[in-house]
Amino acid sequence: MRGETVLPAGTLVYGQASAGDGRFTIRFARMRLPDDREVEFAGPTGHRRVEDPRCPVRVRCGVSRSGSAAYGGYPASMSGATRVFIARLAGIAVFDPRGDQVGKVRDVVVAMRQGTNPPRVLGLVVEVQPRRRIFCPMTRVTNIDAGAVVTTGLLNMRRFEQRPGETLALGELLDKRVDLIETGEKVTVQDVAIQQERTRDWVVSRIYVKKPGSGFRRRGETLVVEWDAVTGLTVVDPQQGVDSLLATVANLRPADLANVLHELTPKRRKELAAALDDDRLADVLEELPDDDRVEIVASLDGERAADVLEEMDPDDAADLLAELPPEQAEELLALVEPEDAEDLRRLLSYEEYTAGGMMTPEPVILPPDSTVAEALARVRDSDLSPALAAQVYVVRAPFETPTGKYLGVAHFQRLLREPPSTLVSAVLDDSLEPIGPEAPLPQVTRYFATYNLVALPVVDENDHLLGAVTVDDVIDHMLPEDWREGDDDHELDGDDEAVTHGA
């Protein structure tokens, strides 16, 4: 065989092989991709080109006596070889020796070295439940296979903290602009390959870079170069992009993406936040610690910050505004739509640990002559949280908070049992007593615990509906202020933090 055939990892290639006259000939017929799709090879020669050079396989074959051959491809970046592109590691599962999953890979820690020594890979940042990031040294990684990392099972549960001299490959190297030594061209880092040497140490071996597009060629050329073929990996890039980093976190839930942002350096945190869509950033801000989201909002221009606030849940937006300096909060409120600003000002008028300070002013509200079918259509909205979708609040006009007289609540389960043409006023639960906006957190908590609620209506002294408190907001206020940072180290006893998995 001549050279290597580049195929997706896990691909199986089938064909015919023959030997004679000192030559070994292979004719490919079809291949089975990792998702079980089969592809026929086109053309008489059976050659097929795969564009992405980061996922090579070496083709091996076994020839039977009948002359048929089955080719099994194994990834060159996995257990069959020692090279791994780190973008392929993001999010893959980490297992102990028994096959039990202990977490997911979130980043790779490398240390830059002087001279001709390649950057050394120190270990992996692994996220374990609940949202705790720990450090797993490469000495405890026994195998990196397709879609999995296997460890020795001995993990230190101390929370990962980046030390001076350490670099997060995914968070800090991707999208960095560097110079090709040979040509002097500016290129952008798309991916980084790490490789295990004969000494069993892991080092950065190659860089996957992209040249800028020019002329009619909008997409620049991509190529894989040796790590020492570029300069500038250790230089701070003031114009570093986030395209590759965005691709690695695109499928993360808001809470997990918030955890990624929290672990980044302030510079990269602001760059990634600025690149997110308004609704995506709004969801992430709701999951971040107060210090982080204040920092991010302060880095945005006024118009962008106001747009993000409008996308947030009103109660979370009000909590964020309360953390900002009063002057900045007023500036943002002036840029927000008047109706939204009115809701936010009303929420800010209540104490934080009261029903009014925790409620959302946008529950599902309907008039009494609405039908069950209309109510079910409203709660079907995918933007509603499960807690808000669990109940429909029936009031008299006006139907924006503060509403007219509060009549009662219709539970989602009851709506499902009734004919679609039934009026919601006929299925109201009027036994559920609403709560006042000044009710303190302990009283609200007792209400939820006593009646097994997921949401509770809040009314004023004239029985006008002001909003609803949901169980997630109650739990949020009951937990310590720094709970989003996952600071549960007090559960660990001194330095005895090593946990053995798979024993």
Main attributes of the structure:
single chain; 503 residues; alpha+beta; MgtE N-terminal fold; 6-stranded antiparallel sheet; elongated; disordered N terminus
Radius of gyration: 29 Å
SS-based structural class? Answer: alpha+beta
Low-confidence spans: 1-5, 43-81, 489-496
Gap from first CA to last CA: 44 Å
Mean pLDDT metric: 81
**Main beta sheet:** 7 strands, mixed
State the shape.
elongated
Percentage of residues in strands: 25-35%
Taken together, the total number of domains comes to 4
Describe what this molecule looks like in 3D.
The structure is a single chain. The chain has 503 residues and is α+β, with helices and mostly antiparallel strands. The protein has four domains: 12-75, no CATH class; 77-240, no CATH class; 243-349, MgtE N-terminal fold (Alpha Horseshoe), CATH 1.25.60.10; 365-478, CBS-domain (Roll). Strands 7, 8, 9, 10, 11, 12 and 14 form a seven-stranded mixed β-sheet that branches. Strands 6, 15, 16, 17, 18 and 19 form a six-stranded antiparallel β-sheet that branches. Helix 7 (302-311) packs across helix 9 (326-335) and helix 15 (441-451) crosses helix 16 (471-478).
Blueprint of the fold:
Layout: E1 12-20, E2 23-32, E3 38-40, E4 57-63, E5 68-75, E6 83-85, E7 93-95, E8 101-111, E9 120-128, E10 132-137, E11 141-145, E12 148-151, E13 154-156, E14 166-168, H1 169-173, E15 177-180, E16 186-196, E17 202-210, E18 222-226, E19 230-231, H2 243-249, H3 254-263, H4 266-275, H5 278-285, H6 290-299, H7 302-311, H8 314-323, H9 326-335, H10 338-348, H11 355-358, E20 365-366, H12 372-379, H13 386-389, E21 391-395, E22 406-411, H14 412-417, H15 441-451, E23 455-459, E24 465-470, H16 471-478, E25 498-500
Helix pairs in contact: 3-5, 5-7, 7-9, 8-10, 15-16
